[in-house]
Amino acid sequence: MIASQSVLILISVHGLNIVLPQEQLWLVVLSIASVNLYTWMRLKTDDPVTELEIFSHLVIDVLGIAALLYMTGGASNPIIWVFLLPLIITAIMLPPSYAWYMVILTTSTYTVLITYNIPLPAIEPHIPTTTPELMMIEKMTTASPHSDMDHFEMLRQMHEIGDKHYFNLHIFGMWFGFVFSAGLVAFFVVELAKTLRTQERSLAEARENALRDERVVSLGTLAASAAHDISTPLATIAIVAHELENEYPEHRYPDLHEKAQIMTQQINRCKQALSVMSASAGEMRAESGKIMPLTEYIDEVLSQWRTHRPETKLNLFINPLVPMNAGIIAERTLTHSLINILNNAAEATQDDLGIEFHASWDLEQAHIKIRDFGPGVRSEILELIGKQPVISNKSGLGVGLFLTCSTIRRLGGKIEFTNLESGGACVEITLPLIALEEANDITGTG
After folding, report:
1. Considering the entire predicted model, what is its pTM?
2. In the predicted model, is pLDDT for residue 358 greater than 70?
3. Contact 230, 242 (CB under 8 A)
4. Among residues 310, 376, 368, which one has the least CA distance to residue 337?
5. Distances 403 to 193, 337, 364, 368, 385 between C-alpha atoms, Å
6. Tell me, what's the pLDDT at 43?
7. Distance between CA 62 and CA 39 in Å, rounded?
8. Please, which residues have CB within 8 angstroms of residue 69's CB and are 6 or more apart in sequence?
9. What is the Cα–Cα distance from 76 to 99, expressed in whole angstroms?
10. Is the per-residue pLDDT at 76 higher than 60?
11. In this predicted structure, what is the pLDDT of residue 37?
12. pLDDT (average), residues 239-254
C-alpha cells in the first residue's frame, strides 16, 4: 500500500501536473511506514497476535487512507473505493462482528469526506456548445436590455449552479454505491468465511471419529486374538480345577473343596464371556439385537447388572415425558456398555448412598442419567474420556469405558461425563428410539 500511494503521488504531481499538498501527503505515507516498522519489530516477539490487534492495524490503515483522500478531493477522488480493501480483509480474517464494525467505520469516514476535504484543482470551465444552449443564449440576448456580457455572465452562473447540482448527485450516487457495496461484501464474505470454518470443523470432527473408530477396530482385533489365545490355557485350568475338586472331597477338605468350586465357577464365567464374544463377532446391529419396549429393556439391563452387584443400593427414577412407550434396539454391546457404566458407578460410590438411575423419554430419544456419590472423576481424566483409553484405577475408567463411549456414539447416541458440585459424578446418555408402530413394521408383526 505504501508503494502504491507513493507511485500515485508521483504520477499525479509530475505526470499529470496536478497541484497537491505534497508535504502533508508524504508525512502521512511516512506515518504509515512507521507503523509498518513497529509491526515488523512486533512480529519478532513470541507474543501471540490477537484478533483485536489485527483489527486495530486495519483501523490504522483506514485512517491513513482517509488522511490521503482528505487532501486529494475527499469523496470526489476516483480511488475512494480503496476503503473496500480493509473491509474485505476484515471479513475474511476476523469474526463477523469485526466486519460490521469495519463497515460502520469506513461508511462513516466516507460520509465525513463528502463534506470535509481539500478540493482538487478546478477543471476547465464548462462552455455551452450544444444547439439548445446556443438558442437559449440568443433568446436571452434579444429579450433583455442588458449587455451581451451580462447575459453571458448570467448564463455562466446558471451553468455553474447546474454543474454543482449534478456534481452533488454524482457524489451522492458514489456514496450510496459504496455503502451498498460495503454491506454486500461484508455479508457475502462473512457468510463464505463462516461456511469455510464450518467445513473445517466438520472435517476435524470426521478425522477425530475416523481415528477413534480405527482405535476401536484395533482393540477389537486384539480382543479377538486374546480370546483365541486364552481359550486353550483356560480349558487346561478348568481340567486342573475339576481334578482338584475331585482330589479334595468336601467331607475331608471342606476349605480346599470350596476354593476349587469357586475357581471352577469363575473359569466357567470366563468361558461363557468368550463364547458370547465369539458368537457376536462380526454381527450387524440389527442382527445382534432386537427391538424391545424401552421399559422392558431397562428392566433387563438392571436385572443383568443385579446378578453381578446384588449388594449395591440402587435408587430408580422413571419419568416418561409421553404416556406411550417407545422401542429401542436392544443390541448386546449397548447392554454391556450400560452395565459397564453401572459397575463403574457402583465401585466409586459410597456404600450407604448407593447410585441413582434416572430414565426419561419422549417420542424420539431416551435420556438416562447414572449418578454416584463418590469422589468424582479427576479433571485430567474427564477430558480424555471417550477420546482414548485412560489408565485404569479403582473407579473402573479404562479401555472398557472408551469402548462404551464408542458404542453409544456408533448407535447415534450421546454420552457426557460431569462432576457434580454436591459430590460424585454423573453420566448422561441420550439414545435414539423407534416408535412401536414403526418397530412392528420393521419386524413384520403387529
Report:
1. 0.45
2. yes
3. no
4. 368
5. 36, 8, 24, 18, 10
6. 87
7. 16
8. 75, 77, 79, 80, 113, 117
9. 25
10. yes
11. 92
12. 82
Kindly state the greatest CA–CA separation across the chain: 152
* H helices, E strands: number in the chain: 14, 8
Percent of the chain's residues with pLDDT above 90: 9
Residue of 391, 395, 392, 389 lying closest to 375 (CA atoms) = 395
pLDDT in tens, 200-245: 888 887 777 777 666 666 666 566 666 666 776 777 788 888 888 8
Cβ-Cβ contacts under 8 Å for 94 (sequence gap 6 or more): 51, 54, 55
Say what the pLDDT of residue 126 is: 46
CA–CA gap between residue 435 and residue 439 (Å, rounded): 6
DSSP summary character for residue 94: S
Q: Which of 420, 416, 338, 417 is nearest to 375 (CA)?
A: 420
Q: Contact at 8 Å (CB) between 358 and 369? A: yes
- pLDDT for 57 equals 92
307-340: pLDDT as tens digits:
878 888 889 888 877 666 678 888 777 888 888 8
Q: Name the band, by pLDDT with cuts 50, 70 and 90, for residue 429.
A: very high
Helix (H, G, I), strand (E, B) or coil at 330: strand
Rounded Cα–Cα distance for residues 436 and 292 (Å): 9
pLDDT digits (tens, 9 = 90+) for 381-420: 777 776 666 655 554 445 677 778 878 887 888 888 888 8
State the DSSP H helix or E strand holding residue 175, giving kind and residue range, or none if neither: helix 148-247
Give the Cα separation of 255 and 171 in Å (integer): 105
SS3 49: coil
Would you list the domain boundaries of the chain?
288-433
At residue 328, what is the residue type? Answer: I
For cell 482414548, what's the residue? Answer: 388
pLDDT at 104 over 70: yes
What is the DSSP code string of 348-403? HS-TTT-EEEEEEE-SSEEEEEEE--SS---HHHHTTTTTS-----TT--SHHHHH
Domain 288-433 is classified in which CATH homologous superfamily? Histidine kinase-like ATPase, C-terminal domain (3.30.565.10)
Spatial separation of the C-alpha atoms in residues 74 and 71, rounded to whole Å: 7
